[in-house]
């Protein structure tokens, strides 16, 4: 089983055009709150705690202004990829020191194996690694445009 | 934090800890560009969480974790999603017991 970055994991209600917080803890809280409002997760405080624990293991910022927080959690109902942008940038503790402008949050339910979850995360990483994809995602005018980029580049 | 919330946190933390301790998993994450530091911080958090759970439930939890790799199963439509058995009405949580165990597989049940 592999997850493509298509309609099964994307949802317009899980897209945030401009994340306001400057700190990653607050940004994660906003993302989880939105996911909960959209019905994608139960127990939002549990998911927030799990994402923060993951960050304590090492930052999920991969450089070049991108962060890919991820969790396999009992709080997650179905696999989802949240996309969020930040105009002013978020301090995510990236090794290159750059503030994060693009956040891709990969959420998997616990029934998905670690391998399936990592494959899901890897697809998102592969998209974000290419400069032209990052630029398209950051500049996309709407969720539909973001979804089209992800569909196009992840096959 | 309630005992149920603590057990759910323990569940998620153990998934994360498995990732951090498994060399193959660590290698995959590093190859993707993620930092994976020494999981001692998770092990300390785990020890703290265990202190907030009654010994009896800790024993159920550890036994199921050892056997299945995950100690908690979601209940959907009265079906344990760990072993897919339909649960009897008497298995529901009540005022005395907020946590329950699947009598078939022994996993701790998460009713939602």
UniProtKB/TrEMBL annotation, chain A:
Entry keyword annotation includes Transport: yes
GO MF term list: protein kinase activator activity
Entry keywords, A to Z: Sugar transport, Transport
Superkingdom of origin: Bacteria
Start and end residues of each PTS EIIA type-2 domain: 8-153
PANTHER family assigned to the protein according to its UniProt record, in alphabetical order: NITROGEN REGULATORY PROTEIN, PTS SYSTEM FRUCTOSE-LIKE EIIA COMPONENT-RELATED
Protein name stated in the entry: PTS sugar transporter subunit IIA
TrEMBL record, chain B:
Taxonomy, superkingdom: Bacteria
Record-given protein name: C4-type zinc ribbon domain-containing protein
Organism: Eiseniibacteriota bacterium
């Amino acid at each position: 089983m592999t997850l493509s970055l298509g309609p099964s994991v994307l949802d317009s209600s899980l897209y945030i055009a401009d994340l306001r917080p400057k700190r990653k803890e607050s940004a994660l809280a906003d993302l989880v709150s939105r996911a909960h409002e959209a019905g994608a997760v139960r127990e939002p405080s549990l998911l927030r705690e799990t994402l923060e624990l993951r960050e304590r293991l090492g930052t999920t910022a991969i450089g070049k202004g991108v962060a890919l927080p991820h969790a396999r959690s009992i709080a997650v109902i179905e696999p989802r990829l949240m996309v969020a942008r930040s105009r002013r940038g978020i301090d995510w503790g990236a090794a290159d020191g750059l503030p994060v402008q693009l956040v891709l949050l990969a959420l998997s339910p616990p029934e998905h194996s670690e391998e399936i979850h990592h494959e899901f995360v890897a697809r998102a990483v592969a998209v974000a690694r290419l400069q032209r994809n990052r630029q398209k995602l950051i500049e996309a005018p709407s969720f539909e445009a973001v979804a089209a980029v992800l569909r196009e580049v992840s096959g | 934090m309630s005992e149920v919330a603590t057990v759910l946190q323990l569940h998620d933390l153990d998934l994360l800890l498995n990732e951090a301790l498994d060399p193959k998993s660590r290698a995959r994450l590093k190859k993707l560009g993620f930092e994976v530091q020494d999981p001692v911080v998770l092990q300390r958090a785990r020890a703290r969480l265990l202190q907030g759970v009654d010994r009896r439930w800790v024993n159920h939890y550890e036994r199921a974790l050892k056997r299945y790799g995950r100690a908690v199963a979601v209940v959907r439509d009265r079906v344990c999603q760990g072993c897919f058995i339909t649960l009897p009405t008497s298995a529901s949580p009540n005022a005395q017991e907020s946590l329950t165990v699947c009598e078939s597989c022994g996993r701790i049940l998460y009713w939602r």
